[in-house]
Design goal:
8-stranded antiparallel beta barrel; about 150 residues
């Protein structure tokens, strides 16, 4: 009995589809990265996030043995925000350099203290007019992290 080539091709296609359907299945769910208490080497990069009602773009431009060059900008996250005296809608801080810690894993500036990279996130403490924040800004572009930097 001769089987037409179309039938053979159809059977092969069906066998391939069944074989693929019986594969390993879906990949396990991997939650998005988050700070985990680790500290990795400081590196240039761009992080963003919110502090209170303000979104912040935090840039580390350069890291040397003793200093970290940064620039920061952002604005109010409310779409209905209006400029008010002492509280503009957007801000840009003058680029500055901050003192790097002895272990080289963090830096301190005027208001930002103990800034460090934690599992890819830029975390630390920010103090302004009696308010204290503990931001962890998400990476936008910058440090290459594996998500497993303990």
């Amino acid at each position: 009995m001769i089987i037409p080539s179309r039938t053979v091709a159809g059977l092969l296609l069906l066998a391939c589809l069944m074989l693929c359907a019986c594969g390993a299945g879906r990949r396990p769910y991997v939650p998005p990265p988050e700070p985990n208490g680790s500290r990795i080497a400081l590196t240039a990069g761009h992080w963003t996030g919110t502090m209170g009602e303000t979104y912040v773009n935090f840039n580390i431009d350069r890291v040397t043995d003793t200093r970290v060059a940064i620039n920061i900008n952002g604005g109010l996250s409310s779409p209905t925000a209006h400029n008010m005296p002492g509280n503009p809608v957007t801000f840009t801080d003058r680029p500055t350099t901050c003192k790097r810690s002895r272990d080289g894993l963090s830096f301190d500036c005027l208001r930002y203290k103990d800034m460090h990279i934690d599992n890819g996130f830029l975390c630390g403490t920010y103090r302004l007019y009696g308010s204290v924040y503990h931001p962890c800004f998400a990476p936008v572009v910058g440090p290459k992290w594996s998500g497993n930097n303990a």
